[in-house]
Amino acid sequence: MPDDEHRIDERLIRKINAYLEKNRDPSTPVTNLLDPEELRSRLDLTLPEGGCSLDDLYRVIDEYLEHAVRTGHPQYFNQLWSGFTLPGFLGEVITGLTNTSMYTYEVAPVATLMEMELVQRMGRLAGFEDPEGLFLTGGSNGNLQAMMIARNRALPEVKHAGFTRDARLAAFVSEEAHYSFEKAANILGLGMERVIKVGTDEAGRMLPEDLEQKIEDSRAAGLRPFFVGATAGTTVKGAFDPCERIVPLARRHGLWFHVDGSLGGTALLSPRHRHLLDGLEQADSFVWNAHKLMGLPLICSVFLVREKGRLLASNSVDGADYIFHDDGHGASDLGPLSLQCGRRPDALKLWLSWKYYGDTGYAERVDRFFDLAAYAEEIVRDTEELELMAPRSSVTVCFRYRTPGIEDLNAFNLRLRRELARSGRSLVNYGFLGEDMAIRLVIANHELTREDVELFFRNVLSAAESLLNPS
Ligand SMILES: Cc1ncc(COP(=O)(O)O)c(C=O)c1O
Known about the structure:
This protein is of the alpha/beta class. Helices cover 41% and strands 14% of the residues.
């Protein structure tokens, strides 16, 4: 029988369900991490000249799944996203099935309307009355996009003429901000050194007094401050910069005020936690990753601007009439707003998911994340061998293992984290807080329970024990 390329084989459905079922079994390893050479030797990565059969392809899919990290497993804490949701998965399946691009209404009519609806909805949650916005490829690009609009506002001639001189622009973000701000400064021709790092308090929140000082210092040094990026949910400590206190400084100094809510934007959905973003309503732009705490498959990220027209003015170009036609639907084309040409309909999966869980489902989820993170913090505080490395602000808990006999705590905790990964029992990441390594537990999987958190710490303690007393 010839291969049928236009029918989804039941085998695939069975494989997907078996994979999902195993995710929920705590005895399933989160990862079977192998060195690249070892993994390469186990896979057939050659691309045959004559192709292969669908049966062969299904065998390769089995291998892929066998070695894939189980990011939907309840012991996967490695990134700021985790877990599996059916509505999100359905959105991905329908996206693949219908395979379109978001540049014109004509080729993505429903997805365009869904995207418009979500931009309005999410923008209003941010406190923007009549927002402009669109989905883009993540928080990094949201930060880039914000800095680009700010640059074009500060130097209107640059969009067309480029830099004709060193404008000596200076941007300000906290020392805990994401590295993408530096990448943005690189791409935009500002220079990474022009991203000036503002000090933070112990919890990792930007210090407004230091921001003011750094703005004044940079002026005195002949620089031209143009942008401040606050973070709502920093990458390691999960801290929320005090937007309300940054707004007046941004206004007084004429800076574009952007908020990176890649991680913490989702707190807007919880009446209990949305106060963490107070002041956001006065920001100029905002990026919010739904693929983090809203649990959508990567990528799903929305960028919002308070003043309509700024995004379009920054991104529009001439010479695109081969694709954008003024013939009835042109006003609904989202392409001119975007830095991309082809763009996936990421709004679809978010819209489906929001429809399914509702506002209350998401509010409960956010509250559960915070409660579970508080529980994890409590376990750390109550366990003699564990040390909390920073005050907890939201869904990340930074800690390390420590007992009197250990001389080099960084080296030991690195080994501990590696041992956990090697055993496949839990996968968790780490960062450095100053000189000290901290294991960063992230609560981001909507199915997590207190038992999963307890198991994680039992795994940590038993991995430490096996390193201290190898049998
Ligand atoms: C605070 C913050 N901003 C931006 C990003 C980058 O987001 P993305 O991976 O979607 O580009 C991250 C990623 O973890 C982040 O934590």
